[in-house]
Design goal:
binds S-adenosylmethionine; 12 helices; 18% strand
């Protein structure tokens, strides 16, 4: 099996297939040989486990996952990479590559069809242009997965793993904490990729709660409120929520006071319990 983190091997493959990197698709491939084995190990990949990968590229992380897991399903949007993956993953019979945009896929059905009887983990070096939407989709779809281990930009990692209610926190911090405990595993320098991006990266693991920690009649109300509160994060929660949801200020003001949340607070000051109370109250109002 060819070592895909070797720059000579990558260049040879890319030139034979006439492949050029697409900036728009966030194609920065890993060339640091120590990163993928570490990432795969820490993702919980192993016997009895199925791994869902998003964006396999030329298959450098996929090979590690295939070597450890019972089955791997890798979702790749770029058709040009399919023949490359055919070659680089030819040693494995436990891989299925799905040519699709991950944002368009019904991942619950895919997991049900492909990973019956297996524990499931997500492991991916995410395309940075859609880091937050992908993470939000994975969480909001309530996938039956143990954990989600992803490489993201360093700043995104720090935001996701920040405390809710701190200045570093954002909508994604609260959303992530609704379903799981985020953990920053290790940093990866920009030079570990080809082509090298402008910023460093980090690998995070989202340890999904086995039992829901926060219970709402409709989870989507929570995400709706969090998004609305952070939509204009410099404004007060009163202004941000009322303008984002198109509700009268006086109504939102009253709701916030009932929830014991100051209408003049900024979203970054609110706790998980504050967001849960507002979401519960708003869903009863609508
Ligand atoms: N896993 C490889 C690695 O570590 O070298 C490639 C990672 S690269 C940062 C991101 C990959 O995601 C690319 O292969 C890109 O084509 C793919 N991609 C981009 N947008 C996607 C989408 N919406 N759905 C599925 N794959 C996508």
């Amino acid at each position: 099996m060819k070592k895909l983190s070797d720059i000579g091997t990558i260049k040879d493959i890319l030139s034979r297939y006439g492949f050029s990197f697409s900036k728009g698709l966030g194609q920065n491939f890993l060339v640091n040989p120590s990163v993928c084995p570490r990432m795969a190990q820490l993702s919980g990949a192993g016997e009895g486990v199925g791994a869902l990968e998003i964006g396999p590229g030329i298959g450098v992380l996929t090979q590690e996952l295939c070597a450890l897991c019972d089955k791997v399903v890798a979702v790749e949007i770029d058709k040009r990479l399919l023949p490359v993956l055919d070659e680089t993953l030819s040693d494995f019979d436990n891989i299925k590559v799905v040519n699709a945009d991950v944002m368009e896929l019904d991942l619950n059905s895919l997991i049900k069809e492909e990973f019956s009887g297996l524990d499931v983990v997500v492991c991916a070096n995410l395309p940075y242009y859609i880091t937050s939407p992908v993470i939000m989709k994975l969480l909001e779809d309530r996938l039956p997965v143990n954990s989600i281990t992803v490489m993201v930009q360093k700043e995104a990692a720090q935001r996701i793993c920040a405390e809710v209610g701190s200045r570093q926190g954002g909508a994604v911090t609260a959303a992530v904490n609704y379903y799981c405990e985020p953990e920053l595993l290790f940093y990866v320098s920009a030079g570990s990729f080809m082509p090298a991006p402008k910023v460093d990266s980090a690998v995070i693991r989202l340890n999904v709660y086995k039992q829901p920690k926060y219970k709402l009649e409709n989870d989507r109300d929570f995400f709706k409120i969090v998004r609305a509160a952070f939509a204009q994060r410099r404004k007060t929660v009163l202004n941000s929520i009322s303008s984002s949801l198109g509700l009268e200020k006086s109504v939102v003001n009253e709701l916030l006071l009932e929830c014991e949340v100051s209408p003049s607070a900024r979203a970054e000051k609110l706790s998980m319990d504050d967001f849960v109370r507002i979401a519960e109250r708003i869903s009863r109002y609508e």
